[in-house]
Amino acid sequence: METLIVLIPALPLAGFLFAVLARPRLDRLPLVTHGHGGHDHDEHESGHEATHAASHDDHASVDETGFRAIPTEEEQAATSPHAGHADDLANAEGADGVIPPELADGIGQAGHAGHGADRPVYRSWIVPTALVGIGWVLSMIAFASVIFGGKTYHVTVYEWIAAGTFHVEIGFSIDALTAMLLLVVSTVGFLVHVYSIGYMDGDRGMWRFFAYLNLFMFSMLLLIFADNYLLLYVGWELVGLCSYLLIGFWYKKPSAAGAAKKAFVVNRVGDFGFGLGVIMIWTTLGSLAFTDVFARIGGQTETTATIIALLLFAGAIGKSAQFPLHVWLPDAMEGPTPVSALIHAATMVNAGVYMVARSNPIFAHAPTAMLVVASIGIFTAIFAAAIALTQNDIKKVLAYSTVSQLAYMFTGLGIGAWAAAIFHLVSHGFFKGLLFMGSGSVIHGAGGEQDMRFMGGLREKMRWTYLTMLVGSLALAGIPIFAGFFSKDEILGEAFNRGYPVFYAVGIVTALMTAFYSFRMMYMTFHGSWRGPAELWQHIHESVPSMVVPLQILAVPTVLAGLVLGIPPEDGLIHRWLEPVFAGSDRAGIVAGSLAAKEHGFSPLGIGGLLLVIGAAVGVAGIWLAYRWYVREPDAPRRFVAAIPFGLGPGMYAASVNKYYVDDIYQLVFARGGVLVAQALWWFDVHVIDGAVNGAAWLAQRIGARLRTAQTGRVENYGLGMAAGLILVLVVYAWVVH
Amino acid sequence: MQPPILTLVVFTPLIGVLVLLAIPGHNQRAIRWVALLAALTSLGFSLALTGYRPDGPEFQFRESLDWIPAFGMGYRLGVDGLSVVLVILTTVLSVVSIFYSWDPIQTRVKEYYATMLLLMVGMLGVFVSLDLFLFYVFWEISLIPMYLIIGIWGGPRRIYATVKFVIYTLVGSLLMLVAILAVAIAHGNASGQFTFDYLVLRGFSYTDNLQALAFIAFFLAFAIKVPMWPLHTWLPDAHVEAPTAGSIILAGVLLKLGGYGFLRYSLPLLPDASKSFAPIVIGLAIVAILYGALVSMVQPDLKKLIAYSSVSHMGYVMLGAFVFNVQGLEGAVFQMISHGITTGALFLLVGVIYERTHDRLIAHMGGLNAKLPRYAAIFGLFTFASIGLPGLSGFIGEFLVVLGAFRFNAWVAAATMLVVIFSAVYMLWMFQRVFFTVPSGWMRRFWPSLKDMSRNEWLAVAPLVVLVVALGVFPGPVLHALDAPMQRIVEIVNGSSGLTSFQLPW
Prior knowledge:
The complex is a heterodimer of chains A (about 750) and B (about 500).
Chain A: H1 2-21, H2 23-26, H3 41-58, H4 73-79, H5 86-89, H6 126-147, E1 153-163, E2 166-174, H7 176-199, H8 206-225, H9 229-247, H10 254-285, H11 290-296, H12 302-319, H13 328-331, H14 337-346, H15 351-358, H16 360-364, H17 367-388, H18 394-414, H19 418-445, H20 463-477, H21 483-497, H22 501-526, H23 534-537, H24 545-566, H25 573-582, H26 607-632, H27 636-643, H28 649-657, H29 662-708, H30 715-737
Antiparallel strand pairs in A: 1-2
Chain B: H1 5-22, H2 28-47, E1 60-68, E2 73-79, H3 81-100, H4 109-128, H5 132-153, H6 158-191, H7 198-202, H8 208-225, H9 234-241, H10 244-269, H11 271-297, H12 302-322, H13 326-357, H14 368-371, H15 373-387, H16 393-408, H17 410-417, H18 419-435, H19 441-444, H20 455-473, H21 476-495
Antiparallel strand pairs in B: 1-2
Helix pairs in contact in B: 1-2, 1-4, 2-3, 2-4, 3-4, 3-10, 3-13, 3-20, 3-21, 4-5, 5-6, 5-10, 6-8, 6-9, 8-10, 8-11, 9-12, 10-11, 10-12, 10-13, 11-12, 11-18, 11-21, 12-13, 12-16, 12-18, 13-15, 13-16, 13-20, 13-21, 15-18, 16-17, 16-20
């Protein structure tokens, strides 16, 4: 079993190395791939996009409210946080013609080759996908052994760093919490590999894509397997690296290159705290191994525990994209959609939730920190949902939805509903992975279009995509029997029980918004009639089986996970599985006088049942509203905005569309401000510090030049000098001695 | 009788120089081969030092001969774990830079290789000397070849840069000579035995006044070399003008002479002064760390960017050295090794693109990932090593230093930890502008003829690729070798009382 556990992360690592080393022999690519085939993706990206940028303005009338046309490329460049680089990137416009066609790789979904003799052969996906597939089997064995066999495993591979009394080992430990994450990571990871075979077909960078995916799998498994904080940090940083590489996969797009850097840097802001937290754990507790840390944290004061907990949480805010570090995740949608599904929805962004859940003994010892976690969570939940309401890019809707759903999990963690949060992590991992892959299928089928205002009616053409996304959206909206219903309502129910009525109320409002925006997305995409260019309609098609089958597979847990794991509410299977992990912390976060404090358990006919009904009703209401507004009366949103009193409607709409200007503020304060400070320091360096150095040299030269005139060559002058010097010495001597 | 390994390591390059003298200057091929073989032989001998036993006596492979007995100067060599890792770093980087010069250097080839080999002698000598005067001699020997390398094979402003470099460093090293003499005389006067033997001088406890003054003199010499803020302004100029191989050695090894000086001489010889001056040094180190990173953000020239980032990275070395705990010190040395590998490789890689376009301006690049994918991949690897990505060597040193700093003071650690953000900003911004998006108009002129890394360039950088990964994943052997020497320094400094009766002599 130990070997098997080490093999699980080792397999994708081997796949990565294989893909990198064997690269030239894998894919057979024709030299020129441009210009033939009516189905050239590159055309969609460049030519097609150009026509769209122009036609978007014409379409402004069908814009749902008509307040703001979608920003053109230039506007986006001006408001994006990378405007500072606009100078460097100005030459990017229209540069396509100059790039030799054999380099089409790296611009969008580029390089779909023509048909016939020079059709490229792609083989680079085989080994990485097969290894991840084997890894999935091994993972399920480990999962079953831990969950059903009730075992935990611990493997020490070798001692990594040792300096004085500081020791860190490469060690893996598998318990129920890790197993739950392993279930999501392995399953969604493998399905995304399969899905990518179809999605990335025709991209010359396919080998690179699969290499990165495998590296990601390795890093993520390292993260959840780690038995100490430093190894967790290693996995944490490596998934960040993979995220960087994959967001910037189409590196020729300035927006993708910028988004990749932004994601890494924003994550580093969180890591600043996380790193300090890890260091502080060692300095106060003398070990980084989880077992030691959790055993010793009780001996520390609450203040110490609070500082540590908050530092760790800073890392979680960055990785799981919570306010105020949420800004990178929507931009990360620049990456290929399978990446969004795997990394930016189902796995990596869960790392923050996992880390806080893993650190539950620390947080349980730090009530203030827990309140901070819950507060940031609930605020982010409604904040992100309020942005998702108005986004028109299908992936942006899902991105903000992810932020909002992760925020639910943090709310759960902060109130001490540890298992409920992990439950939601698992169910969200499945249904959000499904939704993202479905959106990829839509984008793929609709020729690269991501703007929902130019979609519509797609259910006729994409039957399976529609059905599976419908299941995913029902789960997201929290409709009974679907997974999201059980997991989300459990968090909300616990919020109520544990004495956080305000959090509960905000959570319910957020749930209403969630149902609304998820079905707004469904109706805009799949219902109504096609609003894109008429000639494109002919080409829209259901995606290839390698893409559809993963969707169908993921639909199964999306329907069943809640029923299997979540009944009865607050005491389902998953609670029993996770009990050993959270045993010491399950009373943390309970407010005195609340229902939970009175040991008031869940009862279907009591308050618990009522809460469930409210949760379901809110979901139905959101869907009904979306139906009214986006199917029955397309004019309703405009009237609603106009009806907001004091004329605030348009402003509120603009604020939501523009993500409450958080990106712009950061751009101004940190990007611009940082560059200004740096330039001021550089000026100081050149003129003051180096000026002093050169000034000293100049002074020495001047003095030398003056003194040179004393070297006259006349003996009389030298004699005079000697005499004067002698007198001076004598006088000084006499003065000092006496 | 053991073979004199250290002598062989240090003086094999000198034999190479003598052979070079016998080869006619037009036979460039033979010259290059001789130089490479000499460096490789020295590297081979230096690998014998891995036989160093961490649990054995402090200094091993010792050699001792009388040199100028009248003044107590001896040819005393020996290595501990600290020296071993730095010697191997030096031989590896020397081989890399000599090999890399194969194609780029086409003028005065014979002189060039002779100079490079002499430089090697000086640097290696510094790391193995156990005699303060011998140390000083080697220290100065290492100065002159670099002066020539920048001044003869450098860029357009090479004369300004090299004169600045030499005068700046010379000011420091002359003060150090005074300090060495003062220390030896003080010991001689007190004990009646006049010697420059490091082991003897280290065991003596000097008066507070002498310690303070000697510390300041040593400090100037070493801090200029490191270079510490605000004594760093020679570095960007020297790097920008130096040929690629010069930059590799300058960043990879010459800066480490400063760090080594602190660890070998300042701290053990003058523990009280070190203890008392530590807050000042730590303050300067924090400034260097943050300031270097911030200024890196706005550099238009690749080499300047890496030069300023060196100021930041070497600030970690100083911080780790002066927090006086094992983690900080081992982190400092590891950071030196890692910085040597990473920055050496980055300068080499900048040289690769410079050979193709004769330009280093970031604004003139763009989109290179499309045309030079292998080059981009290797550059990316070292970019992330420089950012301190776990799994690569840069992480270990930085983490241990911050850990040591945290034990000293949490706020110091927090301030320096900010660099995890800054370094990501400046390195990734650079990487984005050089490798992503599309080529600049300027770069497009070279676009059709741009070629990915040649076989020679690959071979040159390959050892560094292996090391940066291997040290990140298996830092154990290096850290193990450093354990005892660093522990000893901690004991010496923490066992001292600091300057108690310090008064300035005027």
